Amino acid sequence: MAPIESVAAAASAAGAEIDATGGAIDRALLEELWLLSNAASWNLARSEFDAILLEAGTAWNYGLPKQTTATRHQQATFFRGLHLADLVLAQACAAGNDHAWEHFVAQYRQPLVRAAIAITGSETLGRDLADQLYGELYGLTERDGERRCPLESYRGRGSLMGWLRTTLAQRHVDHYRRTRREEPLEEFDAPATEPTPETPARELSQLERAIEDALGAQDNQARYLLAAYYLDGQTLLQVAQVLGVHEATVSRKLHRATKDIRKQVLRNLQRSGLNKRGAEEALGADPRDLNVNLKKLLQNSQTVTFKEQDTQ
Amino acid sequence: MSATRKHEFHPDAESLNAFAEQALSERERGQVLEHLAVCSRCRQVVALARDAADAEVVAPSAARRVANQPDSWWKKWRLVWLPTAAVTAFAAVSISVYVYKVDQNTATNKIAEQTTTQNEPMAANPAPPTASSAPAAPPVHAAKSPAPSAPKSSRRQVVAAAAASPPPEALEQVEVTSEERPATPGAAGSGFTSKSLPQAEAPSIYNAPPATLAFREEQKRQDEQKRQEEERRQAQVVESRMLTASASTPGAQPAAGNVPASPDAAASVSNQQIVVRADSLAGFSSMRSARGMSKVSAAEVGITLPSGLPAVSTAASVHRRLAIDKAGALFLSDDGGITWRPVQQQWTGRAVAVRKHTAPDTIDTTAPATASPAEQSEAVPGVSGGAPAPPALFEILNDKNQMWLSTDGRLWIAK
Predict the structure, then answer these.
(1) Who contacts B74 (Cβ-Cβ below 8 Å, separation ≥6)?
(2) How far is A150 from chain B, CA to nearest CA, in Å?
(3) Which of residues 42-81 of A touch B (CB under 8 A)?
(4) Of A78, A63, A54, A66, whose CA–CA distance to A3 is shortest?
(5) Which residues from chain A sit within 8 angstroms of residue B62, using beta carbons?
(6) Is pLDDT larger for residue B324 or for residue A206?
């Protein structure tokens, strides 16, 4: 509640415009958004609503890169793209509004349980996961002596239900990975003696280097497609749904990516001194003879994500 | 900063959710995609969240289907059951009413036939029915309660005429076809063809009290008396013939009483006592003995005629024999039944019986004792050795109880 109150106080002092990171929010736009959000239903004050919007805009910088000042048009576009009703409900729940909580429970409690069951694949685990998250949302956990509610971090870029599902998935994946590391090893199988590779070691090293270079040269989408399809074992439909495209498009892009990688590997091999025939023969080497960790290669990308850019 | 350390910072749930919901700008989307390309954990989170969203879309619709399906199914079938039950109930009531009406019509027909039969002699008497004519009423009561063994659904109803004191013809069974039955009990009164049945008496028939057990017993007793009287009379006739035959045959031993003189004679007696019963399919189920009815051997009935049908009624005079087959066609034989010729129909309706008409007082009891058993079994009166036989008179009865007469079996005139 403290950040909202401070922003609201600043907003009220600003007069017709609210200063927002170098820009100003139009009062008329705020009035329009106030009416659209139905924030009055949760007993939110107008100043509190303005503060919530200001927080969301500031956290995302209105969808613009850092150090970029949003114009009024960009602000309006950003605000109109928000899920305002979900945003004010989540913030009202985080603020401890009983009426908002009643509405939240009535609208999201059962979907939350169903989503958890779908994510875990087990009703028992799903209910446990949902109950755990529900307890966190209700503010039962405290950090540094202060009651923390995850709903405070919701800014309305996506739907509240989607946010809840993604949060559940995060908790489940983190829990799974954590517990899997704690699992004892299965039966120990003695490794078979490695056969002597038929391809000379020099050529193998050239091939490994060529593959690494080819994978590193792929763009983000191609590497995501390769990782999701070949490493994670997702179906074309699942990949297509995440990317928001048709699965035929995913299939075509995957085919193109593998074709490009093959061409790039051949080109890299020829660049390293092999002729065309030698390069093709090197490509026919037994994959088991190669010491190529595709997962590691894909993860060792030299690009930096936007979050890391933020932290740098 | 190593690659592993770089990607320890994952996009938050809102960024991943906004990416999955296509709510990010191109720049933001590229950044998240770049992270997803190298982070299996976030790919897995996004994929799981997406699967949960798909399951959430399917689950409510499935739940709605499950919730709605029983209601819809039940409502649908409940709507079907109501008219089905109504139709079934209506059909049951209709069948019950129909069966009741059929029974009532049957009883009405019986009453009509009996009343017609009994009123024929009354028609000759111009005196109006008074209380003294009450004995005619019991048959009405008797017919009011049909025999329980009679099938209800039979299209051909055979009604036994009750005979308190009816003429011999009333003993014959009368066939009532379904076409002759009135459609309704109310129409039954107007549907009677009897001239002697007063139209005004019809309602009293329905109002008459049902037959009682005492009345039925009385009727049985009267029937039994008549049957015994008839048998006694026949026995007297046979006895007189036997005595005559014994007296006219040289060397014949006089018989004492009614004991036959020879086995042949005994066979003749026994055969003479057999009463011709017309086949029920031909309309006559029983023809009991009556005055003037000829007696034919049982073997005669088994004759197969040129039509291929068995004979149902035969009559004979010397070598001339007449036979009616099941179809009602008349055949004539002049050589004692060896060859048969069809006789052109000169009567209306279907012939059901043929007989030789002889008055009891004209019975010739001078039949030769040397006649063959077959001849004796034919019980042909009026044939005596040497003496001129009186002209035989054959008569035919059709299915409407009308009679035609003929002396030679070829030319028939209505009686």
Answers:
(1) none
(2) 10
(3) 63, 65, 81
(4) A54
(5) none
(6) B324
